[in-house]
Specification:
By secondary structure, the protein is α+β, with helices and mostly antiparallel strands. It is built from five helices and eleven strands; from the N terminus they run H-H-H-E-E-E-E-E-H-E-E-E-H-E-E-E. The protein has one domain.
Amino acid sequence: MAVTRRRGCRRNRVAPLLAVALAVVLPPDAGAQSAVAEPVPPPQPRPAVVEAVRLPDARPLAPAHNEPIIRDNSSETCLARLRSLGVTFSAATPIAASRGCRVPAPVAITEIAPGVRLTPDSRLNCQTAEALATWMRDVVLPASRTELKSRPTALVHDSTYVCRRRNGRADGKLSEHATGNAIDIRTIAFAGRDALPIRIRNGRASTEKRFQARLRKGACKYFSTVLGPGTNAAHATHFHFDLARRKGGYRLCQ
């Protein structure tokens, strides 16, 4: 009975000590906190930073694929460039035909370069006249000196402005000629030698063949369309140059 009494006393003394130790280690309500955990709110998204963006200036839409371009050629800047190229010209009467053919401010050219006539009478828009004059200065005059040892005196064309549809058809899209945007060159005359007709030149290499090839290749830098002998039957006897605008700046050089 004495032994039993001592063991009971020892258990009675340990219990208060354990209670004190737990009170020191655990904070108040620890059991309740571990039993019911409050949900942690998700992080709030950071507000988006909106930067000011400069929108491009409004511009007219480009014409549909292969549609002729109607340009306002009254710009004094373009006319001044023609004068600086040595072109002799005068302002022609504005053209506004009933079928949609229109050249707001055509120029009538008598000399495409000093001493080089453009014949017969012509009516072109200013940008096409400028491209033709630049081609004459940068391609035709140098090639004439090096290949033919001569100087051109006249550029003979089949047509500039003509109110018609493509390839002379009764229907379809307007030709670039209908807006003064094209020229068909048939012959180049020279001082001291025979004129050079534009035609298919088969056979062995010749000065004339090489000269004609240089003119055609050089025109591709200044015009968006270059056609001529070998393209098809309709262009077997002349160069066709125009400034048609196409999607992506596509050029047709054949």
